[in-house]
């Protein structure tokens, strides 16, 4: 089994490092660190991967962090997984040309899964991460809001997992929106449900992680990695302690 991967996250809005509470753009916390400086800090702590999100583009389209990706790749040894506003094949190519190792596709992965599958075929399954951000509706179904979580899709999480799990997609990032930015702990039952439906996918847990114990729990639930945002930015634990969990035993 491949090693569990810890991915420190940097969400960028208007050039600043921010975190949103439950995906709400009106409930934003800004942090006094520049994106490149944050990436350097994570690299110095021993991170191998960085998860980078363009929040402006997530709503409006038009990924705008290519120059930042180039700087991160020039200044650090980090592998970069990044997305936000990826709508066209040209967006995917531009992000890869900037040096990114994986392109994260969110809204379009919900709206047009066949196109995303075609991109994975063209570039290789290792170069793409499908991001399915989800919220449970009153009817008990896991739904998939899009466009920076501002619009609702009628497709369910289970329906899309069925499509992607048989199409050769390798990497899946799944966020429980109601846990995102809350430090309430990850939704382990959601991740177990996802893996029961799509056991071949390498699942990255995202949303709510507050300490190293949560990372260990995600690992034990079968996740292949965890994205760490607010807890790291607020110093809830040391990145080095999280990275010590990157062992095949998970």
TrEMBL record:
UniProt signal peptide: none
Organism taxonomic ancestry: Bacteria, Pseudomonadati, Pseudomonadota, Gammaproteobacteria, Lysobacterales
Pfam families, per the entry: His_biosynth
A GO-annotated cellular component: cytoplasm
PANTHER family named among the record's database cross-references: 1-(5-PHOSPHORIBOSYL)-5-[(5-PHOSPHORIBOSYLAMINO)METHYLIDENEAMINO] IMIDAZOLE-4-CARBOXAMIDE ISOMERASE
Gene Ontology annotations of biological process type: L-histidine biosynthetic process; L-tryptophan biosynthetic process
Coiled coil ranges: none
Family per record: Belongs to the HisA/HisF family.
Positions of the catalytic residues: 11 (proton acceptor), 133 (proton donor)
Any one GO molecular-function label of the UniProt entry: 1-(5-phosphoribosyl)-5-[(5-phosphoribosylamino)methylideneamino]imidazole-4-carboxamide isomerase activity
UniProt EC number: 5.3.1.16
Family annotation (InterPro entries): Aldolase_TIM (IPR013785), His_biosynth (IPR006062), HisA/PriA (IPR023016), HisA_bact_arch (IPR006063), Isoase_HisA-like (IPR044524), RibuloseP-bd_barrel (IPR011060)
Pathway: Amino-acid biosynthesis; L-histidine biosynthesis; L-histidine from 5-phospho-alpha-D-ribose 1-diphosphate: step 4/9
Subcellular compartments: Cytoplasm
Catalytic activity from the UniProt record: 1-(5-phospho-beta-D-ribosyl)-5-[(5-phospho-beta-D-ribosylamino)methylideneamino]imidazole-4-carboxamide = 5-[(5-phospho-1-deoxy-D-ribulos-1-ylimino)methylamino]-1-(5-phospho-beta-D-ribosyl)imidazole-4-carboxamide
Name under which the protein is recorded: 1-(5-phosphoribosyl)-5-[(5-phosphoribosylamino)methylideneamino] imidazole-4-carboxamide isomerase
Keywords, alphabetical: Amino-acid biosynthesis, Cytoplasm, Histidine biosynthesis, Isomerase
């Amino acid at each position: 089994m491949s090693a569990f991967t810890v991915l420190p996250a940097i969400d960028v809005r208007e050039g600043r490092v921010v975190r949103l509470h439950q995906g709400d753009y009106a409930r934003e916390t800004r942090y006094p660190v520049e994106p490149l400086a944050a990436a350097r800090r994570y690299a110095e702590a021993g991170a191998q991967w960085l998860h980078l999100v363009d929040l402006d583009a997530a709503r409006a389209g038009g990924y705008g962090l290519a120059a930042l990706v180039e700087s991160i790749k020039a200044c650090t040894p980090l592998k970069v997984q990044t997305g936000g506003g990826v709508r066209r094949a040209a967006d995917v190519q531009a992000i890869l040309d900037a040096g990114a190792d994986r392109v994260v596709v969110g809204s379009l992965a919900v709206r047009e899964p066949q196109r995303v599958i075609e991109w994975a075929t063209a570039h290789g399954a290792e170069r793409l991460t499908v991001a399915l951000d989800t919220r449970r509706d009153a009817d008990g179904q896991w739904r998939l809001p899009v466009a920076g979580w501002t619009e609702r899709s009628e497709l369910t999480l289970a329906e899309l997992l069925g499509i992607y799990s048989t199409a050769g997609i390798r990497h899946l990032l799944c966020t429980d929106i109601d846990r995102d930015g809350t430090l309430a702990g990850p939704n382990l039952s959601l991740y177990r449900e996802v893996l029961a439906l799509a056991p071949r996918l390498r699942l990255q847990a995202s949303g709510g992680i507050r300490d190293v114990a949560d990372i260990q729990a995600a690992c034990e639930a079968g996740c292949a990695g965890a994205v760490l945002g607010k807890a790291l930015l607020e110093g809830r634990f040391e990145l080095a302690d999280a990275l010590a969990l990157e062992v095949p035993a998970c």
